[in-house]
Write a structure and sequence with these properties.
Blueprint lengths: L1 H4 L24 H6 L2 H8 L11 E7 L6 H14 L3 E8 L11 H11 L7 E3 L13 H5 L2 H4 L12 H10 L6 E5 L4 H8 L10 H8 E7 L18 H10 L3 E5 L6 E2 L11 H9 L15 E2 L1 H11 L5 E4 L3 E5 L2 E5 L7 E6 L3 H12 L6
Parallel strand pairs: 1-2, 1-4, 2-3, 4-5, 5-6, 6-12
Antiparallel strand pairs: 7-8, 9-12, 10-11
Helix pairs in contact: 4-12, 4-13, 4-14, 8-9, 9-10, 9-11
The structure holds calcium ion (CA).
Length: 371
């Protein structure tokens, strides 16, 4: 509990306030708090449950579950923070190619995890297209097609609404400027959302609906200054859509690129075998107990958990923001360009060591469901 609650302050601020140091209740910045004895004092004086003073962040979770296991880890962290009252999960979206093969079972994995955490009715939407997403997945059918183990009832892409339909319904049903969109995979759904027309959910075009309802888009991707062909934003068919998305996206956009050297997952072995997140890691890492050294033993990188943590805690978590700059896309890939300044673009930075972040992330990944 100490590890989980250590960076939570009730003074929650977003957007323009990001440029200022966030002051916690004892007058120290979040970064200083984490690294010193102030942490222990803070947690001692303010138990975690009493530190939550504001409404939970409303999130649509958009994932390419299957090509890596950190998506499953991010869902575990997301649901743990939902159990703690920090986030309200509005819907989940499987936006990787859902047209054929094992990718069809992506929605089944989302439902299995949501059912494990006591949210079996949480809406799921899926990509019916086949041009964006990793065709190689390691655990979708093995989990999604086994409701007798995990107790879920959504199995395949054909069991759920189209991703754009669910996006539009969810946005229309919520207050203006209240929804955070979190993508931890290829942001292809957002391209089609912006292109969408008025329908039974809303008279607004996709772009106008996003402008009215969304407060910010947080993405896991890449934020270094040298161009790279990032998996989420450039590879697997996404690059041809990216310029259109970056040019037309109407709200603030936060890019989180940290996580490669923050390794987590081994502690999931202590959770029940009925935990589908545990199974996702076991299957993705293939031989969980006898791991390949390059994957640092039993662990895996944590890009998606870090983006998720930021989407919920912002600079009240172990993060800072770079506001001057812009996400750029060229034939060499994407990068953070400090010489350009797009006022809607923000780069997310970690303010703690890899080991400190790993401890926080993994502690959240193994919290038992609250039900
Ligand atoms: Ca992912």
């Amino acid at each position: 509990m100490v590890t989980i609650g250590v960076l939570r302050s009730k003074h929650w601020r977003w957007a323009t306030d990001f440029n200022e140091p966030v002051t916690s209740m004892n007058g120290k910045t979040a970064r200083n708090c984490f690294s010193g004895m102030w942490c222990l004092l803070f947690v001692s004086l303010f138990p975690f449950t009493t530190a939550i003073a504001q409404s939970p962040v409303k999130i649509i979770f958009d994932t390419d579950m299957g090509s890596d296991c950190d998506d499953a880890g991010a869902m575990a962290l997301l649901h743990a923070l939902a159990d703690l009252g920090e986030v309200e999960i509005l819907a989940s979206i499987f936006s990787s190619r859902g047209d054929a093969g094992d990718n069809q079972y992506g929605p089944g994995v989302l439902d299995a995890i949501q059912t494990y955490y006591g949210r079996p009715s949480l809406p799921i939407g899926a990509n019916r297209g086949g041009d964006v997403g990793d065709p190689k997945v390691r655990y979708l059918k093995q989990i999604g097609n086994h409701p007798e183990i995990y107790g879920h009832d959504v199995i395949k892409t054909s069991d759920v609404p189209d991703m754009v339909d669910l996006y539009r319904k969810t946005l229309a049903d919520n207050e203006d400027h209240s929804v955070v969109i979190l993508t931890v995979g290829h942001p292809i759904a957002l391209v089609h959302l912006l292109r969408s027309k008025a329908d039974s959910h809303s008279d607004l075009s996709g772009t106008d609906l996003v402008r009215k309802k969304v407060s910010r888009w947080v993405a896991t991707g890449y934020s270094e200054s040298s161009p790279a062909k990032n998996c989420n934003f450039v590879k697997q068919g996404m690059s041809e859509y990216l310029d259109e998305l970056l040019e037309n996206w109407p709200t603030d956009f936060y890019m989180s690129g940290s996580g490669k050297t923050v390794v987590t997952g081994a502690k999931l072995q202590a959770t029940p075998k009925s935990n589908p997140v545990r199974e996702a890691y076991r299957l993705w890492l293939k031989n969980w107990v006898r791991e390949k050294p390059k994957r640092d033993g039993k662990n895996r990188s944590s890009w998606d958990q870090i983006g998720t943590l930021f989407a919920i805690r912002g600079t009240n978590g172990p993060f800072s923001i770079t506001s001057k700059g812009s996400v750029q896309h060229t034939s060499r890939g994407i990068f953070w360009d400090s010489s350009e300044n797009n006022p809607k673009h923000f780069r997310v930075n970690m303010t703690v060591t890899d080991q400190e972040m790993a401890r926080l992330v993994e502690a959240l990944m193994i919290v038992p469901p609250a039900m």
